[in-house]
Inverse folding.
């Protein structure tokens, strides 16, 4: 007969923990929060020290009855929600509902769901941490005040259904500001000159560097022609050779934001998908004979700290797999990522490094395996010895001009044997070999290639870039990044085009109004300061009511001014040339979460909508009558299909080229990877060289 009840958030977590604890424990899931502020009203008594009015969440009746019935059958209740503010708040609400004494030792926390970690946690239960609860309450109430006070204003002055959020508004402003930077950007011309040379039989490429001993930038063709004239008949001779040894250190193990960024770059995962798959790995996977095991530690963290036990296990694995030279002299210790990092629990790592991706491959889905492999490799590499690179810089003289060639090769791979972090464009550093050269060596000139370039505007934010920007500015916390990105798209404030955020007209208008009437809400420093204040509440250094009061005093005055002075704005829809086939009215352009689409101007009488069709200029390879057009799936993913659909069912995830493969006669398609855009056959191994204007890979981030 069971004598204890354990309550967690999810059925998957309940299933895993139940197997570890045995028959003396009943393990139930609360299915997340059981109480929250009401949706129909603000639910906060501002005059009464911001007293929240919590109600039971609709639809939780059956779950709560089950928990209460189970409570009656046991002597002891343990609350084992996640080890963060949100989890502490869930435990507190459960204690309130089940009439538990929250000063009793009823709270159990663990950073990983493994048998040992869970059993150890139940040896040291603690009371509910009210500071953590108050920090969560303060954030929830703060966001409710901003949302429920400003949103009705926007409904009245602009459009029904709008909302303003404390952190989401800053995210939209960042996207909006970046778009304005891009629009205002004036490209500047610059040139490069590349010398294609040969040393003996080895090819060598060198870039123009300096004239008369001074480094020189080339701004126009006239300057280039002057250089070309001076070296037209000159001999190319090695002026100087510098060889150095460079040490390269591994990246720290993942925190939430870096995992989201690297999963976007290497796996092409959206932030929400990364967190969803990570949750599955954390809560437990059935590994056959081994049973259900949580494969990674808790995935909402901003700490790079690693437990001594995990470090010792990593050391054992590295020494056994790679040898002593691959382990550093002392274990690697990583400091906190940022000054405002909470450091509440460990970095994201495998629960056991001995459980390699290959070992668990057969039990995981494709996405689970790819993310687990990323986490596992990053952690193992973080504990390994540094890589050693041999670098070579060669200055080559031609008349009064110097060209420079750089090369590098791996002398000792160290951590690079396992993992190398991606650059922003999704690529990793590659070796660039130079032939053995000595001062005075004569080189053969094969070609001189001048090339015109123009400076590029700052890139639009991808999900990964935006997460990084928010993290660096101290905006939001690990649990908030993915929801923020989802919310700003659902509200129609931004759209994703080619995986980059673009502000909508609505988003621009809302930010304009917010900047005029609520500038502190959009102020990055102010928002970051509020995050620090919430951290101080969690640490017991600040009173949560005092923090809310400090914010609300000035906010209330801003609201009064906005009520009086904010003018009503009508957003006019842009009329298209398309005529609605259902009612004959003109269709207008609307903005959805995946970009623009066409809708009938007769809404709500006529609800006809259709996508904006982008042609490719390619005749359909199936019916030979229609043309291939770009379309979007319900989830927003771009694909290509025949405009004669449903009469023709041709469909492709890749853009057709409009030519047949010279080897097998099948369809040629374009593929964009980290090296650029490549034309290849849809069936055989035929490939063509990357296109001249290949993509830079930014959209993979």
């Amino acid at each position: 007969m069971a004598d204890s009840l354990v309550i967690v958030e999810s059925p998957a977590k309940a299933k895993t923990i139940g197997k570890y604890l045995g028959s003396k424990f009943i393990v139930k899931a609360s299915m997340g929060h059981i109480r929250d502020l009401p949706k129909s009203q603000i639910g906060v008594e501002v005059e009464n020290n911001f007293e929240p009015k919590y109600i039971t969440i609709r639809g939780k009746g059956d779950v709560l009855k089950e928990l209460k019935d189970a409570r009656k059958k046991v002597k002891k209740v343990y609350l084992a929600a996640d080890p963060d503010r949100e989890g502490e708040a869930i435990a507190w609400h459960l204690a309130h509902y089940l009439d538990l004494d929250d000063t009793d030792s009823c709270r159990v926390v663990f950073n990983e769901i493994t048998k040992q970690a869970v059993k150890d946690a139940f040896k040291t239960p603690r009371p509910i941490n009210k500071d953590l609860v108050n920090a969560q309450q303060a954030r929830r109430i703060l966001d409710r005040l901003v949302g429920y006070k400003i949103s009705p204003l926007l409904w009245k002055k602009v459009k029904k259904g709008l909302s303003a959020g404390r952190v989401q508004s800053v995210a939209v402003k960042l996207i909006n500001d970046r778009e304005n930077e891009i629009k205002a950007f004036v490209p500047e011309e610059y040139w490069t000159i590349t010398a294609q040379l040969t040393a003996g039989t080895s090819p060598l490429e060198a870039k123009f560097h300096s004239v008369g001993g001074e480094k020189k930038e080339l701004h126009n063709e006239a300057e280039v022609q002057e250089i070309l004239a001076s070296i037209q008949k000159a001999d190319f001779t090695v002026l100087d050779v510098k060889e150095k040894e460079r040490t390269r250190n591994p990246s720290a193990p993942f925190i939430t934001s870096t995992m989201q960024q690297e999963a976007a770059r290497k796996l092409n995962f959206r932030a929400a998908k990364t967190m969803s798959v990570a949750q599955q790995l954390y809560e437990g996977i059935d590994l056959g004979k081994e049973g259900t095991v949580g494969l990674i530690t808790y995935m909402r963290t901003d700490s790079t700290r690693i437990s001594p036990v995990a470090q010792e296990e990593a050391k054992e694995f590295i020494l056994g797999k790679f040898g002593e030279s691959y382990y550093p002299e002392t274990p690697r210790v990583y400091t906190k990522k940022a000054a405002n990092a909470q450091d509440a629990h460990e970095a994201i790592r495998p629960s056991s490094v001995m459980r390699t991706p290959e070992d668990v491959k057969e039990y995981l889905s494709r996405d689970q395996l790819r993310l687990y492999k990323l986490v596992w490799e990053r952690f193992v590499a973080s504990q390994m010895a540094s890589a050693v690179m041999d670098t070579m810089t060669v200055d080559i003289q031609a008349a009064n001009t110097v060209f420079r060639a750089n090369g590098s090769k791996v002398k000792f791979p160290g951590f690079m044997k396992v993992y190398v972090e991606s650059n922003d464009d999704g690529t990793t550093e590659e070796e660039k070999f130079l032939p053995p050269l000595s001062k005075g060596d004569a080189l053969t000139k094969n070609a001189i290639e001048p090339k015109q370039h123009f400076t590029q505007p700052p890139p639009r934010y991808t999900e990964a870039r935006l997460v990084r920007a928010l993290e660096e500015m101290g905006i939001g916390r690990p649990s908030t990044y993915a929801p923020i990105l989802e919310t700003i798209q659902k509200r129609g404030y931004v759209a994703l085009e080619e995986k980059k955020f673009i502000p909508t007209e609505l988003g621009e208008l809302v930010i304009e109004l917010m900047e005029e009437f609520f500038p502190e809400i959009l102020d990055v420093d102010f928002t970051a300061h509020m995050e620090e204040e919430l951290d101080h509440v969690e640490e017991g250094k600040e009173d949560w009511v005092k923090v809310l009061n400090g914010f609300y005093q000035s906010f209330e005055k801003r609201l009064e001014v906005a009520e009086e002075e904010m003018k009503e704005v009508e957003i006019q829809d842009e009329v298209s040339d398309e005529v609605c086939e259902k009612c004959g009215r003109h269709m207008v352009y609307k903005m959805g979460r995946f970009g623009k689409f066409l809708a009938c101007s007769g809404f709500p009488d006529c609800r006809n909508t259709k996508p904006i069709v982008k042609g490719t200029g390619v005749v359909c390879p199936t019916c030979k009558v229609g043309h291939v057009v770009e379309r979007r799936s319900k989830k927003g993913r771009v694909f290509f299909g025949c405009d004669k659909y449903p009469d023709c069912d041709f469909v492709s995830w890749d853009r057709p080229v409009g030519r047949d493969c010279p080897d097998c006669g099948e369809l040629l398609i374009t593929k964009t990877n980290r090296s650029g855009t490549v034309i290849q056959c849809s069936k055989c191994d035929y490939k063509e060289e990357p296109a001249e204007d290949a993509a830079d890979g930014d959209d993979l981030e």
Observations:
- Residues 690-701 have pLDDT under 50 and may be disordered.
- Residues 238 and 483 are 57 Å apart (CA to CA).
